[in-house]
Design a protein that fits this description.
8-stranded mixed beta sheet, alpha+beta, globular
Length: 269
Amino acid sequence: MNEEFIKLLELEYNELKIGLAKASIEGKGTPQEIADRKEELFHALFEKYFPFPFTITKGNIIDSFNKRSASIDCIILDPSHPHTIDQKNKKASVIFADGVDYAIEIKGNLSDKDEINRALNQIKTVKDLTRVKNGVILPKDQNEYTYKIPTIIYAEKTYDNINTLIENILEYYKENKIKRLFQFDIIVAGDYTIINSCKGLISCNNSKGLFLEKTGERTLAVLLFLMANMPLVQPLMSENIYNIYLNNIIKDASYSEEWNSILEDIENN
């Protein structure tokens, strides 16, 4: 790990949180204005850490099997994606699943069951899409997960007890019989990062299951490291630079047999 870079990311993350709080005050009384301001902050952040030729946009994603996702707040397009962004309104006329590297949904507060369910359902609409190609070079490393778009939910706040959020997530997946292939990959909620680890798209300790870590000020650094280890649409010619400078940033991820027993039951029924 490079401590200087991590310190920079900690300051960047604190600035993001201040900006989000400021947006809530500046747009008070107009929910759409608040949402727009927050999306702009995330777009600006990811434009810094995923610069040109990546493109940041929002909207619905379509795949080659005629499926369409819900509208997603922040989408990072691979350099291979056609430049379909309208210069007047900065919106994409079309977003192809085979040109999307990450789909990120932004939420204010995941401490309401209905809001949690909405976020998970939006992510499922992305996971319902299937890419024809992926950036995994070796056939032995390819599986059904690598043909799905990496998904992230970011929430400024959640329950004081993070276990309550996880219990609500598991309840939603169990009630709706949603298998791991169609579940979220990463959730950032308050000071915590939840990783839905599986071999293929994202892996924590080379294991399958939910992992939880209180990442606090290191949250942005952890997020960039996790994103660096998810396969892009096109294979990288060399190792991702974040993987080099943020290696071993995940220190104390915890694992619960109870959570993962529920996930296994969903998978097998």
